[in-house]
Amino acid sequence: MDVLLIEDDSDVAEFVKDALQDHGYHVEHVTTARDGLFVAASNNFGVIILDRMLPGGVDGIRIVETLRNQDNKTPVIVLSGMGEVADKVQGLKAGGNDYLVKPFAISELLARIEALTRSRTNPNVETQLAVGDLELDLLSRVVRREGKNIMLQPREFKLLEYLMRHPGQVLTRPMLLEAIWAYHFDPQTNLIEVHISRLRQKIDQPFKEPMLHTIRNVGYTLRAAGQAAKTEAA
Q1: pLDDT value at position 122?
Q2: Is the model's pTM score more than 0.70?
């Protein structure tokens, strides 16, 4: 697959290019916004990876906006040292498909490229989950409730994804340990309790009605607000 890399930092560019080529990708590298737009329009790329801060003070977000205005639907991964929530939201709203903050692990970049290209070649692949007013985007890794962004740690995100894939289902401790931590036995650990507590603080406490419920002596369930059984202990 052909990848367009728009990055003016030579060290970052070499790091990314070498890694992608080692994994079978053909990488075309340019350093300016002008060259990036020209090459993107004249070639069919599987994905575009671009930096936000380009020569001349150009924000890579402008490239994304221009491509989308030209009806260019090539998936775009934005690379940036700007990691605030507002920065990510801006990149995604401009038309970016993913946003990766520097410094980053090349394994994560590869995984995100694979996810983007997989969803493009198979449009039936589910990339967004929703339970009530809680939304989770698997590509951008953005979580929202009532339209408000919620920041989760990687393990919290994985736990919430699993819960949202089984809405209303009671998930036992062994099920969660195996799905999230790959434990095929039940060790004496409070991992689940700690992560459930942290997740509850983020997706429930700031809002009027809880969604994450404890089923005493059984496990946990995630349901749309107002749909939890009265016998459950929140």
Answers
A1: 55
A2: no
